Amino acid sequence: MAIANESHQEEHNMQEHHGAGRYVVIWVVLLVLTLVTVFTGRMHLPSFGLLLALVIASVKGTLVALYFMHLSEHRGANRLVFGVSIAFVVLLIGFTLMDFGTRFRLANPPGSQYSDLQAVDIGANPTEGRTGGHQQIQKQGHEVHE
Amino acid sequence: MSSAHVTPGSVPGPKLAAHFASLEVQKHAARLGMWLFLATEILLFAGLFACYAAYRFLFPEAWAASSRSLDLTMGTINTVVLITSSFTAAMAVHYAKEGKNAMVGHMNVLTLLMAVGFLVIKFFEYKHKFHIGTLPGRYYFYEGIQLPGAPLYFTVYFASTALHALHVVIGMTVLAFATVRAYRVGDFNANNYTQVELGSMYWHLVDLVWIFLFPMLYLV
Amino acid sequence: MTPSSSIAAPGAVPGHEAHDDHGHHPSYLTDGTTVKSWLLTVDHKRIGIMYMVWVLLFFLVGGIFALLIRIELLTPGPTIMDAMTYNRVFTLHGVVMIFLFMIPAIPSIFGNFLLPLMLGAKDVAFPRLNLLSLYVYLAGAGFALWGMLNGGLDTGWTFYTPYSAHTTTTVAPVLFGAFIIGFSSILTGMNFIVTTHTMRAPGITWFKMPLMVWALYATSCIQVLATPVIGLLLLLVTAENLFSLGMFDVARGGDPVLFQHLFWFYSHPAVYIMVLPAFGVMSEIVSAFSRKNIFGYRAVAYSSLGIAFVGFFAWGHHMFVSGQSTFNAGVFGVLTMLVGVFTAIKVFNWVGTVYKGAVEFSTPFAYFCGFLFFTVFGGMTGIAVGTVSLDVPWHDTYFVVAHFHFIMVGATIMAFLAALHYWFPKMFGKMYHEGWGLVSAAFIILGFNATFIPQFLVGNAGMPRRYYEYPERFQALNVASTAGASLLAFGFIIIAVYLTYALIYGERVDNPWHSKGYEWLTMSPPPTHNFIGPQPTYPEEPHFYVDPKKAEGEVSDV
């Protein structure tokens, strides 16, 4: 009756009634972290800005999952489901980025950081409607030279 | 603190469906089902995150410039609003466990109000973008940023925020049902709060996704 | 739990006592005969039967498309249709067969019917969601069919951008239909996982679950984790097609290969959604018809999970020639080999089960033999096309077409037919004609070989897939393939006839195989809540035919 035990244990944990205080603390921490991430985001840190923002977001997300969503009181299967789903998000993004990072340069989209090809001119060619250019837009001198 | 385990039957609880072994198992099943559903939601957004990651990797300059064209104040206010609404949603579960149905209703109404506020702020952000022309793909006509990849940023921006807004609306619907029940029937108690709990879990997921979307879109 | 009174005691031939009770307890088939009692049922067995009706209907539709393709390819030039129609026909063949037939086939029909029976449960965890998944499936199918009747699409079932974003054919409704069907798949998967976790009867621990349950569990994990990604992707492409948002448009810096990444993140694991339940079916059948305990129970169970897991690490092998980086291609190529390891574990265990078994060569076992050959052959060619250097010349030729048909048709349809024959008495309490069963199995297995072995050869000779015309020198092999397809179709017609006959006039049976599977512990067809009286107990392992301790004296190496 392993499953009954698991259900029972989870039920028991969920019945443990915590005061509202815990939620308030989490809420305040989340707000503080939001301010921190806005503050660091505005500094426009050159290389690790996005990384730092994502780390802060992960901390916030973990707090929400563990305490607001009660994952800290749930048992085996629920945690496993959440963990596995996060792992597969990382898998999807990781392998995809690995491709872009190691690709033959001419195979990357033109105009991108990792391509030697000139960008398709996004200010030009309004008649074809391919680039979203509006009539009044003058060509800007942004083209990457080959 | 009522930490003692309540045996089914002592307090009026939900109906036990005939095919479950016990009420505990039934609740466990509901919770596990909800987690699986939330996992699918996470993977749903993962596709967009992958698009974001790929194009951010390819067009870092356009990404930085475009993200700075967004209104950070509005974005921050929206984040605060959503986190606070998540807090009230958690409080609704707290009160449901205590059997304070009126408070459950009040908390959910607060959550719903903040959700509406979120959507209103989002609407004004969208309106501004339609005005200046920072639109996806072929509709892009903003003169300020003419870097390659800039229209892509707004494709990702609109796709992810629109999908998120759709989830906000779905979450509001779910919470509205629990609210009506809390006010009309008022039978939530320590033994019967699954509906509030699952609705609030969904709402936290909406919050969770926004917690990641906010720095990705506004703070690159 | 109180000991069962009306259910056969463990060890006795199960079902007979229940059979006597038949008059008092209507089976699920006769408990309520109105149309409404079927359409609004929450009984997993009735939902499974309704799935069967629709899935078989779509199988027929997809099969007709397949025959049209084969007839068109009889001659090198135009035969019965123009090129544009041909493009639509092969697309619709793929879409119907994959999204409407292959993915729901075994999990939704046999999984729905059997999972609660195998777990000793009265129903799945969320019966109403189960019914919803059927109607969501039908709604999606309706969208897709509507799109097909309104012109159809010509992108191939892979919907690759940029073509799918620009083609003038009816892409949007079909994509949206596939998106909706994804929800049905997710609902079924969620339901099965929760059922397996929470509904197991007392005595059925994780390692006493039948192997079919393990396979369905692994399948459900894939359905839950992978399907949302393609759901999102189909939405994006639909939006791209309708509004040109530019997500995958090279002119705006988008990357079509990113589409392929997201597409195959679902669609490669989707192959295992199709084939893992087939492995589960075969694990049941091989044990039941060899009258022997399954060899290496844990290895087979774990390898199901293993395939589900490593299946997620192999998607890039569909993109070796599409501009993906060579580094990624190498990594994916190596990871692809892992799938072969887990599949081989299963194959060896099945063979180990048959070894020195008292084989009863009836129709399901005939399909098992076909299945074993096709899986090994399809799997080995899969390893071959998963090797980067070999895939480059073979990519997008008929070699690949033949390879994946060996897995999808060879493994999945063989298992589907085996399951249909093996559990036909369980579902309807009637027996089909064994002789005709073997005849049609012969037609199907031979016809299948005749259809696809020529395609291996013609692909190896360089004929690309999806082409409307081909050089004269390929004609002989194409004719052979079409001839094989007709044999295959003939086999299916025989099956349709004798199973329909058996449904009406078949001999009344309970457990014609003397199978020890848990699902046979109740009467056939089962009563509405699966078991009469209290829940049965499960003291024995599943697939328990020979007691190793008692058999030690007779057979030294069991």
UniProtKB/TrEMBL annotation, chain A:
The taxonomy runs: Bacteria, Pseudomonadati, Myxococcota, Myxococcia, Myxococcales
Which organism encodes this protein? Corallococcus carmarthensis
**GO cellular component terms, A-Z:** plasma membrane
Q: Name it.
A: Cytochrome-c oxidase
Signal sequence extent: none
UniProt KW keywords? Cell membrane, Membrane, Transmembrane, Transmembrane helix
Report the subcellular localization: Cell membrane
Which ranges does the record mark as transmembrane? 20-41, 48-68, 80-98
Domain of life of the organism encoding this protein: Bacteria
InterPro entries according to UniProt: Caa3_sub_IV, Cyt_c_oxidase_su4_prok
Would the keyword Transmembrane helix turn up in this protein's UniProt record?
yes
Q: Where, if anywhere, are coiled coils annotated? A: none
Q: How does it sit in the membrane?
A: Multi-pass membrane protein
TrEMBL record, chain B:
Question: In terms of domain of life, where is this protein from?
Answer: Bacteria
What Gene Ontology terms for biological process does this UniProt record contain? Answer: aerobic electron transport chain
Which terms are listed as keywords in the entry?
Membrane, Transmembrane, Transmembrane helix
Membrane topology is:
Multi-pass membrane protein
Q: Which residues form the Heme-copper oxidase subunit III family profile domain?
A: 31-220
Q: Is Membrane among this UniProt entry's keywords?
A: yes
Q: Which InterPro entries match?
A: Cyt_c/ubiquinol_Oxase_su3, Cyt_c_oxidase-like_su3, Cyt_c_oxidase_su3-like_sf, Cyt_c_oxidase_su3_a-hlx
A GO CC annotation given for this chain: plasma membrane
GO MF annotation terms: cytochrome-c oxidase activity
Which sequence ranges are marked TM in the entry? Answer: 32-55, 75-95, 107-124, 156-180, 201-219
First-listed, main subcellular location of the protein, grouped into a coarse class: membrane
Q: Give the matching Pfam families.
A: COX3 (PF00510)
Is the keyword Translocase assigned to this protein? no
Q: Where in the cell is it found?
A: Cell membrane; Membrane
Q: Which family, according to the similarity comment?
A: Belongs to the cytochrome c oxidase subunit 3 family.
Protein's UniProt name:
Cytochrome c oxidase subunit 3 family protein
User: Which organism is this entry from?
Assistant: Corallococcus carmarthensis
Automatic annotation (TrEMBL), chain C:
> Which terms in the GO cellular component ontology are assigned?
membrane
Q: Where are the transmembrane segments?
A: 49-71, 91-117, 129-149, 169-194, 214-237, 263-283, 295-315, 327-345, 365-386, 398-424, 436-457, 477-504
- Presence of keyword Zinc: no
The record's annotation in InterPro entries points to:
Cyt_c_oxase-like_su1_dom, Cyt_c_oxase-like_su1_sf, Cyt_C_Oxase_1, Cyt_c_Oxase_su1_BS
What's the main place this protein lives?
membrane
A Pfam family per the record: COX1
Cytochrome oxidase subunit I profile domain mapped to chain residues: 38-539
Sorted keywords for this record are:
Electron transport, Heme, Iron, Membrane, Metal-binding, Respiratory chain, Transmembrane, Transmembrane helix, Transport
Whether Membrane counts among this entry's keywords is yes
**Signal peptide (residue range):** none
Name the family the entry cites: Belongs to the heme-copper respiratory oxidase family.
PANTHER family (UniProt xref): CYTOCHROME C OXIDASE SUBUNIT 1
Indicate what this protein is called per its UniProt record. Cytochrome c oxidase subunit I
